[in-house]
Amino acid sequence: MTERPAQRTPNRQLAALIAEAGFSNAGLARRVDQLGLEHGLDLRYDKTSVTRWLRGQQPRGTTPALIAEVFTRRLGRRLTAQDLGLDACAPVYAGLEFAAGPEEAVDIVSGLWRKDSGSHAELRRIAFTPAGLVVPSRDWLIGRADERVARGEAPPRVPAQGRPALPQQRGRGERAPGHRVGSGDIAALRSVAELFRTLDDAYGGGHARQALVRYLEHELEPMLRGGYGEQTGRRLFAAAADLTRLAGWTSYDIAAHGLAQRYFVQALRLSQAAGDRAYGAYVLVTMSRQAVYLSHGREAVQLARVAQQGVGGSAPPVVQALLHVAEARGHGVLGEVRACTASLVRAERALEAARPGDDVPHWARFFDEAQLADEFGHCHRDLQQFRAAAQHAERSLQLRHPGFARSRLFCRVVLATARLGLGELDQACQLAAEAAGQAAEMRSVRAVEYVKDFERRLEPYRDAAPVRGYRDKVAALG
């Protein structure tokens, strides 16, 4: 890799930290290369590279942040590139680490928010790395809620009233440094989450993602750095986990997969600070879904099983159904018919056990018969069981609320794929044309990719009249 021209001043800060850590030059280079692999980077540093850094040369791109992370893990305290005498010219490429405590968790996630709300387009091009799933899921499984999250003492503040402000309506500087978080603040965070969730469902993750990230930076970060008692702090971290997961979800929807992965890891850590084990399991399910989409079936199954193990039998039936169906999707991608079927049966039985009076978390209320039918449809499609896939997809479309426009689009493509598999070319093309029209009105890379996947399946029939008609309709969409 190309290095910057050598500086005249030796890097004594880096030399001191190498001595403290007990690294050899070759050992440091090897650890940087290994950490690079976790982040999807193929680095080729050696002891000569480290010698050049010690003489004053500055490594380019992501490397300063990676070197700082190597020392942070070794020495057990947070170190930045500047602490090592290096230029922090790269965006946040860290973010896969599972923080030791609440303060560090806030530092990491707020760093992601700030970089993401800026002009760092390269942040959205970071690669997804399956290896980066192992440590966070393990640490969550064996970890416990933080003993204390309360922070600071500050004068009481009148709770926020009325509709929560959007990012452009309130600036960061308007919130005093000693701000005392109250119940009105928590209610506002919940309302904002529902607002952005509704926009995401209807118009795709790209529609309001940047506005969400700016809200996190300008409104949520000052709250997390403000003052709050123990009970309010838990609720604050729970709201922060939910909003951070949503930032990851919208990033995932626009194919910013490495960034989404980092948001999910940090949402998992925030859920631990909140003491909300069930929500942590939901975050793991979200990570599992991303792994399914990226065809990492084995990792998807493992994440779903960690989630199940983490909550045991304490979760409501609806949540149990959600966890089992996530495992089923992983097995489906792997083509494991028996394991997939067994997980689907467990999910179906769990949802049947749900009762109207059950205390279902707000984030799990979307999981109903329509969603279960949708999951069945996807699994049967992946297993090439097209008749069953068509039956379940049709049922889901009949039951699904119109507000879940993107989910309905996905299900329509699943139905089109099933019809194609059954040899019903006319119906398949008609359904897919409807989906393509909807995708054109959304800001969702996933929606576009669903349609493109169907089009790849059409290739053997490219000269048939229905396919030519389909292509003409799609071309007319521009």
TrEMBL record:
Region (Disordered) location: 151-181
Top-level taxonomic group: Bacteria
Name of the featured protein: Regulator
Source organism per UniProt: Streptomyces cinereospinus
Source lineage: Bacteria, Bacillati, Actinomycetota, Actinomycetes, Kitasatosporales
